TrEMBL record:
Family from the record: Belongs to the telombin family.
GO BP annotation list: regulation of telomere maintenance via telomerase; telomere capping
Family annotation (PANTHER family): PROTECTION OF TELOMERES 1 (PTHR14513), PROTECTION OF TELOMERES PROTEIN 1 (PTHR14513:SF0)
Protein name, UniProt field: Protection of telomeres protein 1
Primary location group: nucleus
Length: 504
């Protein structure tokens, strides 16, 4: 099959090719999405990188995969939106479960490429070419057209049978057990200490949904609720660089994706395909496998602009720090002495040096202790350690003796304390024994936090939070249970106060 240097075949014509077609073409297009280098499956003798291309002839795109014997031999683009010129690539059409798919195959011996800067600063001179590439007289014409091409309405994942773009979920739409595609910025990457993979920390400005807890509060002293999914927390320096609003989702990935370390900057929007949502330590995470894919997207995409608009509007709002699933109009569990003070997230409370006192909307996911008989008339300076959670972080907050009466109410007996704590912790039916714990869905509550350090010479290591200016309201958990159609809750004593609870 002879090579035809011109004219270049538009993607609209490529999309008309039928199943079984094998045609060699030349293609001039804009890079709408760029993959990261990966090793081929099986024996893994080659590396490859994929690109998704657009040329303005239709709203759909076409994929091209380039192979090389080493990672160093693969082409590296300056940025998404750059221009690629391909000569003598073979178009292949195959039929899958979702319809016909079309992609271009790059032959290491016959095909050639050239990459041009999207801004035009280099004119018609490519910044990267393969050894056998020969320029044509059409370069200047196509570069002018493609550099001015907008990708705003481009639909890379649509084909002839499916006109709708594959849905990219926001983090607020994730569900346990669901396999999905997400579009996020990567704020940090690290290796799992055991060497079994990577942890990607991704963010899109929204909050992952709150989860239902199954852990046993009766063993909170010996087996505390984990504060993070990792075996050890990230350094304060790294955590302080994370966004203060919105969930930073942990995504576990195989080492096959290690070249995501090479993606420049945190501003890049990256699409993660085939991510499974799981719960670990009762925190939502994502899990990738070898069939997952990663693509860096153009910032012109509608889906990118949509996420940026959501975050900018949230950041500008007076209530932007409140979890997206919380309605202050229906949250009647606590009140504070500082109702007019602006809200903060836990991430802001932890890492802001100026913010020593804050008001947050949180869920109390654990308490040590939690039963009335362990909290009533106890002679200790710290009455309880609460584990607080919002979409940005978890932390321990302590209720000291001087704040306890205000928090729980004066002259409150042990049974009433248990009822109030059940409401706070989202327990609808009490456990009947030491080893049993009912499912719980803690409500969103308001609380005031004061930050202090036990050792001024080690502020990070000795940081503590104290709950103050906050009180529980309402009769008991019955308020919420009856409103949700639940039966009236009757307190059953299952654990006796036969020894003091140790709170660190």
């Amino acid at each position: 099959m002879s090579q035809r240097l011109s004219p270049y075949t538009p993607i609209s014509e490529i999309k008309k090719m039928r199943e079984g077609s094998r045609v060699a073409i030349n293609l001039f297009a804009k890079i709408a999405e760029a993959g990261i280098p990966r090793m081929t499956k099986g024996i893994g003798t080659d590396y490859y990188i994929g690109f998704k291309l657009a040329d303005g002839s239709c709203q759909f795109g076409v994929s091209i995969t380039i192979f090389a014997p080493t990672v160093a031999d693969l082409p590296r683009i300056h940025s998404v939106g750059d221009i690629i010129c391909l000569h003598n690539v073979e178009v292949k059409v195959y039929k899958g479960e979702s319809g016909e798919s079309i992609f271009c195959s790059f032959n290491k011996r016959k095909s050639s490429y050239a990459f041009f800067d999207k801004e035009g600063s280099t004119g018609v001179i490519p910044y990267k070419i393969s050894a056998s590439f020969r320029a044509t007289n059409y370069v200047s014409k196509y570069l002018d057209q493609l550099r001015s091409l907008s990708l705003e309405h481009y639909q890379p994942d649509a084909n002839r049978q499916q006109d709708a773009i594959v849905s990219l979920l926001l983090l607020k739409e994730l569900e346990e057990g669901k396999v999905c595609d997400i579009l996020c910025q990567v704020v940090h990457v690290c290796r799992i200490p055991s060497g079994d993979g990577l942890i990607l920390y991704v963010w899109d400005g929204t909050d992952t949904p709150p989860v239902t807890f199954k852990s046993n509060l009766n063993i909170e002293e010996s087996t505390p609720t984990p504060m993070q999914t990792e075996s050890s927390p990230l350094s304060s320096e790294i955590l302080s660089s994370f966004p203060r609003i919105g969930t930073v989702l942990r995504v576990i990935a195989p080492n096959d994706f290690e070249h995501i370390f090479d993606v420049p900057g945190r501003e890049q929007w990256i699409k993660f395909c085939n991510v499974t949502c799981e719960l670990r330590s009762e925190i939502m995470i994502g899990v990738m496998n070898l069939d997952s894919k990663v693509f860096i997207l153009s910032d012109e995409y509608q889906s990118v602009k949509h996420r940026e608009r959501i975050y900018n509007e949230r950041k500008a709002s007076d209530l932007g720090q409140i979890p997206l699933t919380c309605s202050l109009q229906t949250s009647h569990v606590t009140v504070t002495d500082y109702e007019t003070v602006p809200y903060s997230t836990l991430m802001e409370s932890i890492h802001s040096e100026e913010l020593l006192s804050s008001k947050c909307v949180v869920r109390v996911v654990a308490s040590l202790p939690w039963r009335g008989e362990h909290l009533h008339s106890v002679n200790r300076s710290v009455r309880a350690r609460l584990t607080l959670e919002d979409p940005t972080a978890r932390l321990h907050a302590y209720i000291y003796e001087e704040d306890w009466v205000q928090f729980i109410g004066p002259d409150t007996g042990a049974d009433d304390i248990t009822r109030k704590m059940m409401k706070l912790l989202g327990i609808r039916n009490p456990p009947t024994g030491e080893k049993e714990m009912a499912l719980r869905n803690p409500p969103w509550v308001k609380c005031c936090l004061r930050k202090f350090h036990r050792d001024e010479n080690d502020k990070v290591g000795t940081m503590r939070f104290q709950i103050f200016g906050t009180r529980l309201i309402g009769d008991a958990v019955n308020d919420q249970a009856q409103g949700e159609g639940g039966a009236q809750v009757e307190v059953t004593e299952g654990v006796t106060a036969d020894r003091p609870i140790i709170i660190d």
